[in-house]
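Q: Got a minute? One more chain.
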Amino acid sequence: MEFISLLLDFILHIDRYIEAFVASYGAWVYALLFLIVFVETGVVVMPFLPGDSLLFIVGALCGAGLMHPAPSAAVLLAAAVLGDQCNFRIGRHFGARVFQWEDSRFFNRRAFDQAHAFYERYGGITIVLARFMPFIRTFAPFVAGVAAMSRLKFTVYNVAGAVLWVGGIITAGYFFGNLPWVRANLEKIIWGLILVPGLIAIIGAWRGSRTSAVAEG
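A: Always. Here it is, folded:
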């Protein structure tokens, strides 16, 4: 419970943690950012790490002059691309055995099923769309590997999605992250970045499963 409480506090107040890290360790913050994004996108058992909120806060810190935009974007883009490639390779390695896995502390079966249903409906474009959806973002490349998607096709969608995700959210944070209203309501915005895309993903997966059920019926 203590770990969960600490993780939730980190996610909801990530701006304070990153600012404190920059003040204490300077350029080492780029290694921390790479690690967080790589693990969130590249390790299928770590979907709970912050992604969207982290990018937004990094953009805001760049806008405030506490970090440099170019290296921040480059490091996060590399982490996002390499993370998805790692996750894809894990999916290719385990293949059909994944469908026999049960829900556990380290594997969220429901999130995997949602990603699979979303992938089945939208194909490769899911790799791009999933970038903006917490939890689904972690499972989409893994599912693509399980489904034996071609490496070249996956890489194209992977890079395109990473550029849109990293570039778009960092830019939003850069221009809007330091506005007084945004700073005053940052915790609510972070909740929104977590819940709204997740709700959209759940609805999409539910509709996709209903469509499949009707087609089979």
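A: The radius of gyration is 17 Å.
Q: Perfect, thanks.
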